[in-house]
Request: fold
Amino acid sequence: MRPVTNPGAGEAFAPIADYGFLSDTETTALVAPSGNIEWMCLPRMDSPSVFGSLLDRDAGYFRVGPAGVEVPAARRYIPGTMVLETTWWTPGGWLVVLDGFLMGPWHHEDQRSHTHRRAPTDYDADHVLLRMVRCVNGQSQVRLDCMPIFDYGKDAARWEHTGAGYHEAVARGNGVELRLTSDLNIGFEGSLATARTLLKEGETRFVALSWSEHQPPQSYEQAHERLTWTVHHWQHWLDRGRFPDHPWRAHLQRSALTLKGLTYAPTGAVAAAATTSLPETPGGDRNWDYRYTWIRDSTMALWAFYTLGFDWEANDFFHFITDMAEAADGHLQIMYGIDGRAELEESTLDHLHGYDGARPVRIGNGAYVQEQHDVWGAIIGSIYLYVRKRDRLDDRLWTIIVKQVEAALANWRLPDRGMWEVRGEPQHFTSSKLFCWLAAHRGAQLAHVRGDGERAERWQQAADEMHADILENAVDERGVFVQHYGTKALDASVLLIPMLGFLPPDDKRVRETVFAIADELTQDDLVLRYRTTDTDDGFESEEGTFTICSFWLVSSLVLVGEVDRAKALCEKLLSYASPLQLYAEEIDAHSGRHLGNFPQAFTHLALINAAMHVIRAEQAQREVPMI
Reply:
């Protein structure tokens, strides 16, 4: 696919799917195929950017690679890791560049961490971005260009050397101190730190960017040793998982690594994506900040982590969610900062041109104040999964359950903004009623575990009332579930009905709904979340197909017995993965172009769910004895 261009800057933007994703579970970065780091925020993934050329070509970048060559010969992750390898052909030689955030042993032995709320582990982020270069054949001219511009492209760096030579430099801005360390000779051209050298076969160089008290490597040998530790860390982490011996295993493993990379280790929160304002419509205004954690993601995240054997990560996210619920005292928001903060005030950065001219560029997310009634079902569903793994329910969780179920019972009859966070008029969305039912139904089951018969009976009666209300008002004359009461419009969120156990998969209404969405709410087999012409979401522009919804359709097709159709759709969806097996939020069904923030946690969660549904269904078919 040809890169898109920004007429205002005259430089090409790489397609969203062509970016590599790096993480140390505190900081993330996106690397363009050119070797340019075009998105990196410090000190956290939701902090202001220091490299922001993803959203404006003049907002900072960091490139290490061959001079005069932009297009690599190949890119891959070192298998089982978050370390990116890029191979370059240049006139006269071949180069290999390795990029990764360093991981190391737990740092806080003498004093406690000021950010970690979860139990300490054996490892910790080093807060060092390492870039290593090796000439494997011939000779190649190598160039380093590092131009940080702090605070989302507002504050240009002012570099100064430290030490006696030219191998270390420091830049400060917006409360961040960047230290650039290299065996290259670093010079300055205004706010640009730059270096160049001719590498011959077998020669190497390293560049380390650090921003904390943790020391960067001082030599290539140290850099190699610490990168090897990092590679082994990721591979050992992945070894903890349970992955089926199946052709889709690589997709499951990359999804697991991506979810781990989107996890903010100090709190356990899983960010929805690493970016803000990547457009859902090319050049459009559906541009949102996704560097936060949504409560609704919790049930699916726990299911995915538990299914793949990553109980520690599931439990950390669960404890973050319950921390938020406990602090909310019954007034749970739909989303929070990854550090747990409640206020996510939305604003626009009008000085940024936007990715390929898509404006406005937003930071913060105003949806945090919306009324969305799925939140109670999401947290009760998460608690149910957690308790089912342990068969015990303590006082702290019971207090949370009582408040959240009672909130669902008090509000389920009211309209809301729905799980898609529409900015049009509130409606009685079917998915919102469904999650309120889930809160009451699972709450009743948890009350039985607790031994509270009175609440169990009362909550189940409420669940039955909600169930009847949904069946009476959310099903059209064809027997198909619709988006909200009083409409005939379809919505992919109702695919959750069989997945959450609201009705059995063999119920005629479930089957008709799954087939209606597959036949009427798709473009080239890929699922739209809804038709923008039928839904008042506050915008006039169109959007691409929602990849999570397409994976939901895979799971739903399996549940209704259409395993072959589900497998064919899953194979098609996997073919749309980026070259590094990553997904954005949406896919343009006509071009295959990825749209929206990247990489998208919810998409990878749904991928795991869908792939495991197909794999288990195939295994069950093989286990049926011959007659």
